[in-house]
Specification:
The complex is a heterodimer of chains A (about 290) and B (about 475). Chain A has about 290 residues and is an alpha/beta fold. Chain A contains 14 helices and nine strands. Chain A is elongated and about 75 Å long. Classes of the chains: A alpha/beta (about 290), B mainly alpha (about 475).
């Protein structure tokens, strides 16, 4: 039995060393990457200057056409992330401030995502390689239930989120394979019309969202003009009074839910297609940047 | 609680320590702790089904004794058929009732009689097919006077409920396992070390091969109507390696951890994808089930003794029953039927026992033929797996039709945000390792075992799929 315990101890040592070495390797690779996605594009950047920065979920990413801002002479970038929540939008803004970005205006899409304060695992995980090298990332995750595991157990974060920051992604970073996420100023256009235009958001209830509050505070502290907007849904949506409820909690959020109504302009019920996005962005520019 | 879960990583060392350091006085205390651990392990799925497991155990224990004690043949038969009926009854109710009710209703509707089947809203108790078959083999062996009844309930319970094999086999035989639980086990370092190696290799198969293949196979099978020929071909290959890695990985983990407790379980897989014909494949795939059907169905039906027509009939029966054992769906029956069809030419040509020894290749012409035989057997197996994996027979035929008619071999970007070809290198690496060590139970033991073990640990950690967790496929059976 003594022999076996020694044998088992050796395996444990090998395993711990493996975890530690792989953790270092992966982290080093991610610290060099800047062309895979919006998070590493910000994290591994020098200070940038923007007139307009767009934050939010896919309803920001697919709705704000960056080049229309540029045509107006505004330096802009769409940092909306598909699948993201306000947890990630807030952290993204904090990272920009940590990187000393000079930003005049932040447009944040704040509508359906106000209904929860959870992190979006697939997007939030992309911040985790930096948890030891950025105080902002560390602090942002510090109140999460699994923070201790993510922070202290070597390689745990890469195991838990292997689909987004595991071997495959690390390899693509290592070999400098770019994605199309950063094309078109971060705007991702949806094409066509997928047919059935209906949705039911009656189950969603807007709350006083702490990450939206954080974004407000950061903007105020850094003298950034915050423009919070609700973006369009197709007309065949049950529970459209959600947007009024948002205004009851946050009167300052501009309700643009109904500025585009024709199904022709939607790719799916919650997402405008490229034509709809152009229409919507044009209206936003007219209202806020004229 | 799955073998590759964090909770099991805590559970197993605790049981190991209790077994060897606290309850190591005699075989009764050793068996008692294993029984407690096994019942706890099983109750982690659904504690209510623990009663079913205990009842099934008690039924076979009691009827086994009654069969042995019975002086009159009629009494023996009564107890025997009582046990068979109740065992199969449970299996029928939990696993097959809805299938039969639904199929019967569909048939009546086909004749113009509008009916709606009365379906049961019950979940399938995990491992029911496995522990029922344990009990059945035990009772049948007593009835046929091959073995003596076991009078120690704890020992018998351990034979049925031993946690490494409880939920997905291997399907043990009383002649093999009971003698081992009847004696005190002494710690054997060499055996325990082999156990760790085998468990580790099983984990590689599960998390690196099976779960990774699963993400691609699912993306292809679930969207087969928009896939091209290359994707569909790769999808079938990925599923072949998913199910192999999943089930043989589970078996390796079961056998490995059992060695830690000084108990040997039956080998369940012997490199089946290196088979040169379907008969050989079935001697190497899910060996404990194949041999169960051989001993308790094929031979009682007359086996090979009654001439060619009987051989063919019996072969079709065991393949169809084997398919049906896997699940209450026509896809599994079709899968069994296809395998029986594959088997038929070998039976007619009497070549079904021509490849008994492990394959080897060298640089000569006959090896080219052997290599072609391996490839063609694998291709046939993959074709049959399509039925096993598809949601319906219609889906399986659509899949195969597209596979052979689309004839586009471009790379495709799948729903899982990966290209269809991305796993090919991993599969080839896995095949190379298995081929190189096909004469061993697992590739880690032998020369440079520490180096190989380290590589395996790195592979598990770096290449394993953990976020998109897949439970073991055979748990549903």
């Amino acid at each position: 039995m003594k022999k076996f315990l020694g044998f088992f101890a050796k395996i444990t040592v090998i395993l711990v060393l493996t975890l530690a070495l792989l953790d270092v390797l992966y982290t080093v690779v991610y610290l060099q990457a800047s062309n895979r996605g919006k998070i590493d594009y910000v994290y591994n950047s020098k200070p940038r200057i923007y007139d307009v920065v767009i934050l939010g979920s896919s309803r920001a990413n697919n709705h704000f056409v960056t080049h229309l801002f540029e045509e107006k002479g505004l330096k802009a970038f769409n940092y909306g992330m598909s699948g993201g929540h306000l947890f990630e939008a807030s952290l993204m803004l904090k990272l920009m401030i940590e990187r000393e970005y000079k930003i005049k205006n932040v447009i944040v899409e704040a509508d359906l995502n106000l209904s929860n304060e959870k992190r979006a695992e697939g997007i939030a995980s992309k911040f985790l390689p930096y948890i030891h090298s950025s105080k902002v990332v560390e602090n942002h995750f510090s109140k999460e239930d699994d923070f201790s595991k993510l922070y202290y157990i070597p390689f745990y974060r890469y195991l838990k989120f292997d689909a987004s920051i595991g071997f495959r992604e690390m390899y693509k970073c290592l070999t400098f394979q770019p994605t199309n996420t950063l094309n078109n100023g971060g705007f991702y256009a949806l094409k066509g019309n997928k047919g059935k235009m209906k949705n039911d958001i009656r189950a969603l209830k807007p709350i006083k969202n702490k990450y939206y509050e954080e974004i407000k505070q950061i903007c105020a502290a850094n003298k950034i003009n915050l423009i919070a907007v609700m973006t369009p849904m197709c007309s065949n949506t049950k529970g459209l009074d959600y947007f009024e409820k948002v205004n009851a909690i946050y009167p300052e959020i501009h309700n643009y839910e109904s500025v585009v109504t024709d199904d022709h302009y939607f790719s799916s019920c919650g997402h405008l297609n490229d034509k709809g996005a152009t229409l919507f962005t044009t209206r936003i520019i007219e209202d806020f940047f004229n | 609680m799955f073998f590759n879960s964090l909770s099991f990583a805590i559970f197993l060392p605790i049981v190991f320590v209790l077994y060897w350091f606290v309850f190591n006085k005699n075989k009764s205390t050793q068996n008692a702790i294993l029984i407690i651990a096994s019942y706890y392990f099983y109750s982690c799925w659904d504690w209510r089904f623990l009663f079913l497991l205990v009842f099934s155990t008690f039924l076979d224990y009691y009827t086994g004794i009654q069969i042995e004690k019975a002086k009159k043949d009629g009494v023996r038969k009564f107890w025997f058929w009582l046990s068979i009926t109740i065992n199969l009854g449970f299996l029928g109710v939990f696993k097959y009732y809805n299938f039969f009710a639904d199929s019967f209703s569909t048939m009546l509707n086909g004749f113009g009689l509008q009916t709606s089947p009365l379906l049961l809203n019950v979940i399938l108790p995990v491992g029911i097919s496995f522990y029922t078959f344990h009990g059945l083999s035990y009772v049948i062996d007593i009835y046929l006077k091959r073995i003596k009844a076991e009078y120690n309930f704890i020992d018998y319970s351990l034979f049925v409920s031993y946690f490494p094999l409880l939920v997905a086999g291997p399907i043990e035989r009383a002649t093999h396992l009971l003698p081992q639980v009847k004696v005190k086990r002494n710690f054997d370092f060499q055996k325990a070390k082999e156990g760790v190696f085998q468990f580790t290799w099983g984990l590689v198969k599960k998390v690196v091969i099976a779960d990774t293949c699963a993400t691609y196979a699912n993306a292809i099978f679930d969207n087969h109507e928009s896939m091209n020929s290359l994707s569909l071909a790769l999808g079938a290959v990925y599923f072949a390696f998913q199910i192999y890695g999943d089930f043989s990985g589970y078996s390796d983990m079961a056998l490995g951890m059992s060695k830690l407790f000084g108990i040997d379980l039956l080998r369940n897989f012997n490199y089946p994808y290196f088979s040169r014909d379907i008969a050989e494949f079935w001697r190497r795939w899910h060996i404990s089930l194949s041999s169960w059907f051989r001993d308790y169905l094929y031979i009682p039906l007359g086996g090979s003794n009654g001439g060619m027509p009987m051989k063919i009939r019996n072969t079709f029966i065991i393949f169809l029953v084997s398919g049906f054992w896997h699940g209450a769906n026509w896809t599994f029956i079709a899968w069994g039927f296809i395998n029986a069809l594959y088997f038929l030419p070998l039976l007619l040509l009497k070549t079904n026992r021509s490849n008994m020894e492990m394959v080897s290749l060298s640089w000569n012409f006959s090896s080219v033929r052997v290599f072609f035989n391996i490839l063609s057997t694998f291709a046939l197996t993959c074709l049959a797996w399509i039925f096993f994996r598809a949601k319906s027979i219609g889906d399986a035929f659509d899949y195969i039709k597209r596979l052979f008619t689309d004839l586009s071999f471009d790379s495709q970007y799948l729903e899982n945000e990966r290209y269809n070809y991305e796993l090919v290198l991993l599969i080839f690496a896995f095949i190379a390792v298995e081929w190189n060590f096909k004469h061993q139970v697992e590739p880690i033991s032998g020369k440079n075992s520490w180096l190989k073990l380290s590589f395996c640990l790195i592979a598990i950690v770096a290449l394993g799929t953990f976020s998109d967790y897949k439970e073991f496929i055979y748990f549903q059976f």
